Amino acid sequence: MSSSRSSDLWEFPQVNGVEEAPGVTLLLLPHAGGSAHAYTELAALFPSSVRVVAGQYPGRGPRMRDSLPERLEDLVEPLTAAVRRCLPGPLVVFGHSLGAMVGWRLVRALEGAGRQVSGFVPASCLPPHLARPVVDTSRSIGTDELLAYLRRLGGLPEEVFDEPDLLELVLPILRADLALTADYARPGTEETIACPLLVLGGVADKAVPPTGLEQWADRTEHARTDLRLLTGGHFFYKEHLADVAAALTQMTEAALPVRRTA
Q: Is the pTM value of this prediction over 0.85?
């Protein structure tokens, strides 16, 4: 991977051949506690027509020395500036869990600034008018309670729970990220975006009931909102990388500029 002219973005190398310059950018936004590295396997599954870039949040990975975010806008504002500066052309935004919350705000900010977004793909995340803060996982929760919550949610390798040194590294990041959910929840909001939506979820997700995902359709002015449920829980996408990549590729293909023939 390489930085993409901004510490907030990380560009994956094209591994499926480069016949021509990519025509569309796919921006992947990580879950709570995650970094751009979380999408390494997924990023390798896209054709050369897609430029794959991930958000690189502060306080982890190569940005370990940066301060952790204290509000959702600490992630959204620099990402908005970085996308406008570094990622021209058609853009599709995918976010998982916290990444979908960041993506929602990012798409609204970009569209508000006059930048067209070709598609938004929230995964394992309720729309803002249904979301509730994850209060029990704020910075004040006890460590045992937080660990129990993380075990129920999945996503962390089981061996991490048996390594005190690793827990000491990741728990502050997770506490900070999960506290940001309070900024996302907007009960009763009528805010919308203009681009089409593809909503993804796991049928056994205990944190995000699949029935609530249907209401993402109320948050876009576009006529197209597709919902796809796959087997698995909150981190279902890790079990379905090929299926998720195919769905995202389909959306990026729809965003590609129409070629004119002589």
A: yes
